Amino acid sequence: MKLLTLGTLFLSASAVNSFAVDSKIMPGAEVIPASDTHRLKNIGACHPKHHDRRTVTIRHSRHKNDDVSEDFLWGIKKANHGGRLLLKKHHTYVIGKKLDLTFLNDIEVQLDGELKFTDDIEYWQKNNFYYDFQKSITFWRWGGKDIKIFGNGLLNGNGQRWYNEFAGMEILDPDNTFYRPILFLTENATRVSVEGITQLNSPCWTNFFVQSKDVSFDDVFINAFSTNASAEPKNTDGFDSFNVDGLRVTNTRVDVGDDCFAPKPNTTNMFVQNLWCNNTHGVSMGSIGQYPGVMDIIEHAYIENVTLLNGQNGARLKAWAGQDVGYGRINNITYKNIHIKNTDHPVVLDQCYFDIEAAECAKRPSQVNVTNIVFENISGTSSGKNGKVVADLTCSPNAVCSNIHLEDINLTSPAGSPPVIVCDGIQGDIGVECQSSEDSQNKRAFDHPEGI
């Protein structure tokens, strides 16, 4: 009994000490109770879509090298369990240290100002969170449950220096060791929502969700641009995911120069609506099947009301082939009401993804099955780069491609008419007239696009 009492006292003392440390107010910080509506209104913490909460503010950065990472971490901890961290408009908060935020439970972050990462490449390449999948790193990671980020502010990856120094390299080059941070990453997170903010100039992928469930983005603008014409942003995908169930993106604009939306292995139950993509590689399922002996799946996605402009790809399914790759399936995917303009490959099934020679893909085809796919009401124009071809659905001989249906396809090419839809290795009727890539007329459309 005496030991139990001593143990209880020890735990109580620890709890008090922990509270005492946590209750310290950082210089320039403030904690405002939810009941003080007048004060909350004065500092901009009253939001029409979110109820008042205990609100924490922290000091902002005084100059571009004034790192407030410690203050930010303190503010997050103080707002955790039912509160809100407010980052005020007209102020910048510089983050220069890696942050592990995987302890969250019922927290809101109101981003009305600017959160900006330093571009100290030497620091970040030594201090980050690393993920084996495509050698990914991040500045920080968010995890836990019931996490809401909203506001009219800016999450700035400060990517220009990264673009300059990465120029000429490839992320998937096995010899590449120049790793670039992802702007926003969740890990082991449940019920995460991001609303209203702008994400700017991520050094690499903009968003990556890992081992997470029920992630939603609404009314977000994602942009990546370079002021150096010889060093464009690279691999700055809008959305990527790995082992995720439940991903929702609505009313969002993306202009990044790479994939607009591209769930990676083992992502299920996706909903995309009212998505605008400019200068991207499209709304892609994949890539999957990259790693030897590993089974990947992507399934149950409904994608509607999407505009794809001035890009490399439109609606795309992509999987790996070649030596030492994996296998799996892309299943139950619907693309509906998709408008495409000036895009090289408006509709494409690519089972020879990345820099793999065609001969290697023929020798060692993809083992990713593609089933139950719908392309409905797809309209617009290609760029003409692929001649008259506006859709190319080429299935690997080692895979099953079945129940693939096209309906109301109204795509044209500036290279001439009639537009050509290619289908190779697809089982059954796809719903529209299509040609084999070996067809002589079709081959001419491939080989001589300018003369047609």
TrEMBL record:
<dbReference type="GO" id="GO:0005975">
    <property type="term" value="P:carbohydrate metabolic process"/>
</dbReference>
<keyword id="KW-0961">Cell wall biogenesis/degradation</keyword>
<comment type="function">
    <text>Specific in hydrolyzing the terminal glycosidic bond of polygalacturonic acid and oligogalacturonates.</text>
</comment>
<protein>
    <recommendedName>
        <fullName>galacturonan 1,4-alpha-galacturonidase</fullName>
        <ecNumber>3.2.1.67</ecNumber>
    </recommendedName>
</protein>
<comment type="similarity">
    <text>Belongs to the glycosyl hydrolase 28 family.</text>
</comment>
<feature type="signal peptide">
    <location>
        <begin position="1"/>
        <end position="15"/>
    </location>
</feature>
<keyword id="KW-0964">Secreted</keyword>
<dbReference type="Pfam" id="PF00295">
    <property type="entry name" value="Glyco_hydro_28"/>
</dbReference>
<dbReference type="InterPro" id="IPR000743">
    <property type="entry name" value="Glyco_hydro_28"/>
</dbReference>
<keyword id="KW-0378">Hydrolase</keyword>
<dbReference type="InterPro" id="IPR011050">
    <property type="entry name" value="Pectin_lyase_fold/virulence"/>
</dbReference>
<keyword id="KW-0325">Glycoprotein</keyword>
<dbReference type="GO" id="GO:0004650">
    <property type="term" value="F:polygalacturonase activity"/>
</dbReference>
<keyword id="KW-0677">Repeat</keyword>
<keyword id="KW-0326">Glycosidase</keyword>
<dbReference type="GO" id="GO:0005576">
    <property type="term" value="C:extracellular region"/>
</dbReference>
<keyword id="KW-0732">Signal</keyword>
<keyword id="KW-1015">Disulfide bond</keyword>
<dbReference type="InterPro" id="IPR012334">
    <property type="entry name" value="Pectin_lyas_fold"/>
</dbReference>
<dbReference type="GO" id="GO:0071555">
    <property type="term" value="P:cell wall organization"/>
</dbReference>
<dbReference type="GO" id="GO:0047911">
    <property type="term" value="F:galacturan 1,4-alpha-galacturonidase activity"/>
</dbReference>
